[in-house]
Write a structure and sequence with these properties.
This protein is mostly helical. The chain has three helices and no strands. It starts with 11 loop residues before the first helix and ends with a helix.
Length: 86
């Protein structure tokens, strides 16, 4: 069975990085931390998001490969023939 991408949630590292980014932004606005601390938190959040996107891309590629290996594929002809609009 192929895993659904809608069932994939954000990894905890991504959620934690976003939380840290939000906290550091709030602290910067309150003048409690330096600007570079906020930038460092933003960089960490972006890296976590990028890792998540790369993982999801690999998962989708693996799903497509599995479908192809099992003999599945995508053919538009049956869909076009059954479409009453055309």
């Amino acid at each position: 069975m192929v895993a659904s991408t809608s069932a994939v949630s954000k990894p905890s590292s991504c959620v934690a990085a976003q939380y840290a980014d939000g906290r550091s932004t709030a602290r910067y606005r309150q003048r409690a931390v330096a600007y570079l601390d906020g930038v460092a938190a933003q960089v960490a959040a972006l890296k976590a998001k990028r890792s998540m996107w790369q993982l999801q891309t690999r998962q989708l590629s693996a799903n497509v490969t599995l479908i192809k290996v099992l003999g599945g594929g995508w053919d538009v002809a049956p869909l076009a023939a059954s479409n009453p609009i055309n």
